[in-house]
Amino acid sequence: MFYREAGDFKTSYRDDNQTFPIRLDRAGYWIALFVAFCVIPFFVNDYWVNSIFAPFFIYAIAALGLNILTGYAGQVSLGTGGFMAVGAYACYKLMVAFPEINIVFHVLIAGGITAAVGVAFGLPSLRIKGFYLAVATLAAQFFLVWLFNKVAWFYNYSASGQINAPERTVFGVIVTGPNTEAWAKYMICLVFLVGVAWVARNLTRGMTGRKWMGIRDMDIAAEIIGVNPLMAKMSAFAVSSFFVGIAGALFFAVYLGAAEAGESFGITKSFLVLFMVIIGGLGSIFGSFAGAAFMVLMPVLLKNLLVGTMGWPTEIAAELEFIIVGGLIVIFLILEPHGLAQLWRLTKEKLRLWPFPH
Amino acid sequence: MTTDMNADSYVTEDGRTIGPVVMDLKNITLRFGGVVAIKDISFNIREGEIRAIIGPNGAGKSSMLNVISGFYKPQEGEVWFRGSKRPQMKPYQVAQQGLARTFQNIALFEGMTVLDNIMTGRLNKMNANLFQQAIWKGKAEKEELENREACEKVIDFLEIQHIRKTPVGRLPYGLKKRVELARALAAEPSLLLLDEPMAGMNVEEKEDMSRFILDMNDEFGTTIALIEHDMGVVMDLSDRVVVMDYGKKIGDGTPDEVRNNQDVIDAYLGVSHD
Fold first, then answer.
1. Which residues share a beta bridge with B80?
2. Quick check: B111 and A283 CB within 8 A?
3. Which among A224, A235, A284 is the top mutation candidate for probing chain B, defined by the most B β-carbons within 10 Å of its own β-carbon?
């Protein structure tokens, strides 16, 4: 009844090209941004940041990265964990080597290094496709984790084999290390997430995104109408790895504070992010957010429900959590194979006509 | 009035100007292992004309089109484009030179909207770099809006305004064919290759498509080379026709000449048994 485009006239192509062409969507977007930046930071505590906001924001960045590669460009990757590790270790080395430079630049440069590594491991995609490419990226995953465990230079020869984030500030506010305040952690993750999402949206709505989707939908036709497959695939690997690298750097420096390659960036990370992308919706920016939210929030919600509300023992609840989350994933994929984003799209289409569907 | 069709340029009966040779194929031979798909074929395509390639199934027509669009590399022979010999090129480089094509079985990007498909056709007109596109300011946005306008002209021309924002996967066959034509036309090609643009269509759709092809040629001056099985359509539309059979050229000329060529009658239209 309220959600409709009647009377919302577009008089220029710029209006028509907007990310949110419907007025209500646009309003919702600005309200969400306002709440995220100006309301929540004043109320968050450590629990909310550490168990919900920080992992949600960081995984959403990683999911956006993987969605560009797998959802938009159609190149399946199982190397996300490995690329996150590259971002984390690059960020660590930079933080230690250049303490006087702002951490924001370290995170961005770490993303750039990950992009270069991603392009190198993406080269096989020119020859192999589908499952075979997935196996090739799996090699990247295992090689990178092995490398960071084996070569002591990467963890500065520390006895434990771990990397620890030193204390760093942005505008005088501590953002890494054990003394970080909850709202500072929240804000730095949020700023990066909004930046990444904005760039992702701009790239996917323009010619770069069309080239990626062309390669995904029909690579031969794309090449014949003028898409250079080398450039399209490599740019997808570069942008995707850049985002994943930023996620890895934040995951280590801001969220964990200390990390070890095999434990923090193992194959399970790759699968987790891939599940987020599939459940959220391939080829959708919103889907990356929805998928990350689902995979981060669902376990927390279930734990609160089972332990908090129903009073079950923690161990049993922990086991059950896996079963229920797994079951929910299967149910979701049967109900809507195109993910939460498609569900959202259908809901909106219905809403446009509601309550008079004819 | 007689027209000298060998002149540098001439005016057709219906008043269109046919210019000099755009694409000249010289002694093309294409082999797949032991199979000879195209045997020593030469013909040319002149600016502004509608050139048809016909022949029975398996005659090598689509292979010929694939040679022109750079997808197959002929073992022998030369491809001359706009007066210079074309070196070995990747298909996307050929596209950058100003060739566009459609496919026998539709090759659209199913997951994208009609508008995005058509915009993709203009990719050689847009050259904002990755960074400019990432921040969506200046060149990237300006180019997007300019090219959108050009695409809207094509959309208006092919009468597909109502499905602009529909994902291509949801469209019926006839509309998909039209969208594919739109994508090729949006590139403003100097030579447009159509591979069976009317395959699987009913009479009405064929008439629509014929009208679009003629209008395209007339209004934009697009040079068109097409493969088609419907003899009526071919004879009505085209200025000149190449006839192929078993990889060889057996006829070349105006529709009337081809229609009266004994080899063509024997090979394509069937030998009369009496």
1. B24, B85
2. yes
3. A224
Question: Would you say residue B199 has pLDDT above 60?
Answer: yes
Burial annotation A16-25 (CB, 10 A radius, 16+ → b, else e): ebeeeebeee
Strand partners of residue B11: B17
pTM: 0.91
Whether A224 and chain B come into contact, CB under 8 Å, resolves to yes
What is the CB neighbour count within 10 angstroms for residue B78?
Answer: 13
Q: What is the average per-residue pLDDT within A217-222?
A: 91
Query: Given 3.40.50.300, 3.40.50.720, 2.60.120.290, 3.30.1360.70, which CATH number is that of B1-98+189-274?
Result: 3.40.50.300
Name the residue facing A223 among B92, B141, B148 (closest C-beta).
B92
More confident residue, B126 or A240: A240
**Which residue of chain A comes nearest to B100, CA vs CA?**
A225
* Complex prediction ipTM: 0.89
Percent of chain A with pLDDT over 70: 98
Annotated domain spans of chain B = 1-98+189-274, 108-186
Helices (H), chain A: 13-16, 23-34, 46-48, 54-66, 80-97, 103-122, 130-150, 182-205, 207-217, 219-224, 229-250, 261-264, 267-280, 285-303, 314-335, 339-353
| Among B123, B125, B127, the residue to mutate for chain A (most A Cβ within 10 A) | B123
By Cβ distance, the residue of B90, B100, B111 closest to A213 is: B111
Cis peptide before A355 (omega within 30 of 0): yes
- What share of chain A has pLDDT > 90, as a percent? 54
Distances (CA, A) of A59 to A49, A162, A248, A297: 13, 22, 9, 11
State whether residue B121 sits within 8 Å of chain A by CB.
yes
